[in-house]
Design brief:
Rossmann fold; six-stranded mixed sheet; 31 helices; EC 2.3.1.8; phosphate acetyltransferase activity; DRTGG; acyltransferase; cytoplasm
Length: 733
C-alpha cells in the first residue's frame, strides 16, 4: 500500500455537519479490507476528557490506539506552535508536529483515518483552511462533509451547492485532492434536487465526474438527547433510573401543566414530561403508561422547582422503571435550556450507531468509494474484517430469515439492529400486539420486520399438510400436525422448508435439541451429508479458521467424519475462506497406529476419493496443521501442513475442548456454531447469546442460504406451497 493510500482525511464545511456519521461509515468500509486501521484527531478542544469521536470509533472497531496517540494537540498547544512573523501567522511548526505524529501512527497501522477539527477553536472561520493545510501535508485525499441542514429546517439545494463549492475551493486553494463530497443531513424529499445542484457545482457535466457526490439523509434519532444527557444539560439529580433507562433517546418534550387526563392523551413514545415536582398525579399517570402494554412508554420525567417526591412516593413509582430527574429551575426555564441541545453518538448508543451506519450505507456507493480510496486487501483477516465482510455478503443478496423467539428482548434488539444494517428481511413469530408492545417497552423500532402469529396465520393449515405428509410414517395426522405448528420453532422450520423463509435462527430460549429436531424431521440433510454437524468460525487476530465438529456429533464414524470434512469445506467457501482441510489426530502421517488414528486415516481416504481436488492432509496433529515450521518438519511437501484453514476433529470431546481453549487463550472470537449439512439453513444460538451474537448468526444464516438449494421468492411461493411441497422427495427421519 502506497503512502497516499495509507491515510484519508475527513473534514466538514462547518460545525454540526455530521462528520461523525461519515467517519463511522468510512471505518465500517475500512474494516472489511484493512487489518489495522486507526483514527487520529489533529486538534481538539481539551484533553481533560477523552475525545468523544475517538472513544466511539475506538470502542466500536476495537482500534489498537491509546487516547493520547489518537489526539495531536489541543487548541492552546496548537496556538503555541504558530509563530508570528511580519508576513502573518506561520503554522509550519504546527503542521510539522501533526505530520510527525501521523507518520508514527502509520508505522504501526495499515490505514490512518484523520478526522478534522470540530469548528470549536478560537477562529472557526479559518478551520476549513487549517484542515486543508494539514490534509495536503499529510498526503491524504479528502472526503468533505457538507451540511444540508439550515438554521430553521432544510437548506435550499442552491444553498447546499454553494456551500459545497466554497468548501471545494478552499481545498483546491491548498492543493488538496478531493476524494468525495458527502452531503449530510439531507431532507429525503429534497435528495435528488440537492444531488443535482451539488454535482453541477462540482463539475459533473456531460456524464463526466471529477469525484463522486453522495447524499446521506437526516436521521432525527442521531441528534436526540438521551435521558442521561438531559440530566447533564440541566445539571439535574437522577432520582430513579437504571443505566439502560438513562441511555434511552428522548422523543420529544411535554410541559406538564394540564390535568392528568389531558396529559395522558398527549403522551407519546419517548416523551419526556417536564412538570413541577409536586405533581404526583402526573407522575402516577406517566408511571402507569410505562407499565401498560397498550400505552406509549414515556421517556422519563423532569421534576422542576426543586421539589421532589418523598421516599414513600418514590417507592411507589420505582417499579415502573421510568427515569426521574430533579432540577431546581422552573418548568419554562427548564424547557428553554433544552432547546437546541443535541445528543452525541456514544460507544453505548447502539441504536444511534446502527442508524448512522444504515443511513451512510443507503446514501453512499461503497464499491465506488472503495475504488476511489484504492483499498489494498491484505491476506490477513481480522475479526473486524471478517464481520464487516460477512455483513456485506449478506446485504449483497438479501434473504428472509425467521426468528421464532420474539418474546426475548435480545431478539427484538437484534431485529432493530439488523434493520438498521439492512442485512436481511426478518420474520418474527408471535402475537403481533404482544410483540409490538414488548418492542415499545424496550424503545425498539422493528422497522419493516414482519410479524406472524402461528395460531392465526393461514400458512399454518398449508404447512400442516406438508408436515403431516412428511411424518405420516410416524403416524402424524393432519390435526396433530396443525397442533404441532403452534410451536414457533416448528412453524419457523416449515416456513424454511416451504420457501416462505430462507433460513431460521433459534436457541436464545430453546435448547439445541429443540432447534435441531424439527429441521431433522422436515428439512433433512443435503445429498452427500449423512449427519448434521456444528462448525465454529474461529476469528484469530490475523486469520479465520473453521473448526468442526464442535457441537453435535459425539463420536462420528470414518464415513460420518468424511461427510463433516466435506461440509466444513463448503462452509469455509461460503464465508470467503479458501478450504485447506486438516483431519486432526494425535499423530501425523503414518507415525501412529490404533483405532482412533485409523478412523481418521480412513476418513481422509474417503474425502480424497470424493473430492480429489480439495487440499487435504491427514492424519495430522494440530501444531503441524497450523504452524508452518512444524508442518514442514512433520509433513514436508504437503500443501496443507502449516497452512490449514479447516480443522476437522475426530470427536466432539476433542473439537469442543479445542475450540474453547483457542477461544479463551488464543485471543480468538468464536462465531457459531454454524449448523452444516442441512438442505436449508437453520442455526442454533446459545441461551447466553448477546445481541451481537444474534446479529452475526442471522448474517451467517443469510449467507448460507445464498448457496442452498432454494432461494425464497416470497411474492409467488405462498400460492404455490402445497403443489411444490407435495412433489418433493419424501424421506423418513
Amino acid at each position: 500500500m502506497s503512502s497516499a493510500n495509507q491515510r484519508l482525511y475527513v473534514t466538514a464545511d462547518r460545525a454540526g455537519a455530521g462528520k461523525t456519521v461519515v467517519a463511522l461509515g468510512l471505518l465500517d468500509l475500512l474494516a472489511s479490507s484493512v487489518r489495522r486501521p486507526v483514527v487520529f484527531r489533529p486538534v481538539v478542544s481539551s484533553r481533560d476528557e477523552p475525545d468523544p469521536l475517538v472513544e466511539l470509533l475506538r470502542h466500536r472497531y476495537d482500534l489498537d490506539i491509546d487516547d493520547d496517540d489518537a489526539v495531536g494537540l489541543t487548541w492552546s498547544e496548537a496556538a503555541a506552535l504558530v509563530d508570528t512573523t511580519d508576513a502573518g501567522p506561520d503554522p509550519r511548526r504546527l503542521v510539522a508536529t501533526i505530520v510527525e505524529r501521523v507518520e508514527r501512527l502509520a508505522e504501526r497501522s495499515d490505514f490512518v483515518l484523520v478526522v478534522g477539527t470540530d469548528f470549536t477553536g478560537p477562529s472557526p472561520a479559518t478551520e476549513l483552511d487549517l484542515n486543508a493545510l494539514l490534509a495536503v501535508n499529510l498526503g491524504a485525499p479528502v472526503v468533505v462533509v457538507v451540511s444540508a441542514a439550515g438554521a430553521d429546517g432544510p437548506a435550499e439545494p442552491s444553498q447546499v451547492a454553494a456551500a459545497a463549492r466554497e468548501a471545494g475551493s478552499a481545498l483546491a486553494a491548498r492543493g488538496c485532492t478531493k476524494l468525495a463530497t458527502v452531503v449530510n443531513r439531507v431532507d429525503p424529499a429534497h435528495r435528488e434536487a440537492v444531488l443535482e445542484a451539488v454535482r453541477l457545482e462540482s463539475g459533473h457535466t456531460g456524464g463526466a465526474t471529477r469525484h463522486p457526490v453522495y447524499a446521506v439523509d437526516e436521521v432525527p434519532l442521531l441528534s436526540a438527547l438521551t435521558v442521561g444527557e438531559v440530566a447533564s444539560v440541566l445539571d439535574g439529580t437522577v432520582l430513579i433510573g437504571s443505566d439502560s433507562a438513562l441511555e434511552r433517546e428522548v422523543g420529544g418534550y411535554l410541559a406538564g401543566s394540564a390535568h392528568a387526563d389531558v396529559v395522558l392523551r398527549l403522551l407519546r413514545e419517548g416523551t419526556l414530561l417536564v412538570t413541577s415536582g409536586d405533581r404526583l398525579d402526573l407522575m402516577l399517570v406517566s408511571a402507569g403508561a410505562a407499565i401498560h402494554r397498550q400505552l406509549p412508554t414515556p421517556g422519563g420525567l423532569v421534576l422542576t422547582n426543586g421539589t421532589r417526591p418523598d421516599d414513600l412516593q418514590l417507592t411507589l413509582l420505582r417499579p415502573s422503571g421510568l427515569p426521574m430527574i430533579s432540577v431546581p429551575t422552573d418548568t419554562y426555564t427548564t424547557i428553554h435550556r433544552l432547546e437546541g441541545a443535541t445528543g452525541a453518538i456514544r460507544p453505548t448508543s447502539q441504536r444511534k450507531v446502527t442508524a448512522a451506519l444504515g443511513a451512510f450505507s443507503a446514501g453512499v456507493d461503497a464499491e465506488e468509494l472503495s475504488e476511489q480510496i484504492r483499498l489494498v486487501r491484505t491476506e490477513a483477516v481480522t475479526p473486524a474484517m471478517f464481520n464487516a465482510r460477512l455483513l456485506a455478503a449478506a446485504r449483497a443478496d438479501r434473504r428472509t430469515i425467521v426468528l421464532p423467539e420474539s418474546e426475548d428482548s435480545r431478539v427484538l434488539r437484534a431485529a432493530e439492529e439488523l434493520g438498521h444494517l439492512d442485512v436481511a428481511d426478518l420474520v418474527l413469530l408471535g402475537r403481533e400486539e404482544e410483540v409490538r408492545a414488548s418492542a415499545d417497552r424496550l424503545g425498539v423500532d422493528l422497522g419493516s420486520a414482519r410479524i406472524i402469529d402461528p395460531a392465526t396465520s393461514p400458512l399454518r393449515d398449508q404447512m400442516a399438510a406438508v408436515y403431516a405428509e412428511r411424518r405420516k410414517h410416524k403416524g402424524v395426522t393432519l390435526e396433530a400436525a396443525a397442533e404441532q405448528l403452534l410451536d414457533p420453532t416448528y412453524f419457523g422450520t416449515l416456513m424454511v422448508e416451504t420457501g416462505h423463509a430462507d433460513g431460521m435462527v433459534s436457541g436464545a430460549t430453546h435448547t439445541t435439541a429443540a432447534t435441531i429436531r424439527p429441521a431433522l424431521e422436515v428439512i433433512k440433510t443435503m445429498p452427500g451429508a449423512s449427519r448434521v454437524s456444528g462448525a465454529f468460525l474461529m476469528c484469530l487476530p490475523d486469520r479465520v479458521l473453521v473448526f468442526a465438529d464442535c457441537a453435535v456429533n459425539l463420536d462420528p464414524t470414518a464415513e460420518e467424519l468424511a461427510g463433516i470434512a466435506l461440509s466444513s469445506a463448503e462452509t469455509a467457501r461460503a464465508f470467503g475462506v479458501e478450504p485447506r482441510v486438516a483431519m486432526v489426530s494425535y499423530s501425523t502421517g503414518s507415525s501412529g497406529a490404533g483405532v482412533d488414528v485409523d478412523k481418521v486415516r480412513e476418513a481422509t481416504r474417503l474425502v480424497a476419493e470424493r473430492a480429489p481436488d480439495l487440499p487435504l492432509a491427514g492424519p495430522i496433529q494440530y501444531d503441524a496443521a497450523v504452524d508452518p515450521a512444524t508442518g514442514a518438519a512433520k509433513l514436508p511437501g504437503n500443501p496443507v501442513a502449516g497452512r490449514a484453514t479447516v480443522l476437522v476433529f475426530p470427536d466432539l470431546n476433542t473439537g469442543n475442548t479445542t475450540y474453547k481453549a483457542v477461544q479463551r487463550t488464543g485471543d480468538a472470537v468464536a462465531v457459531g456454531p454454524v449448523l452444516q449439512g442441512l438442505r436449508r439453513p437453520v442455526n442454533d444460538l446459545s441461551r447466553g447469546c448477546t445481541v451481537a451474537d444474534i446479529v452475526s448468526t442471522v448474517a451467517i444464516t443469510a449467507v448460507q442460504s445464498q448457496t442452498s438449494t432454494v432461494h425464497t421468492q416470497t411474492s409467488t411461493v405462498q400460492s404455490q406451497t402445497s403443489q411444490q411441497t407435495q412433489s418433493k422427495e419424501q424421506a423418513p427421519a
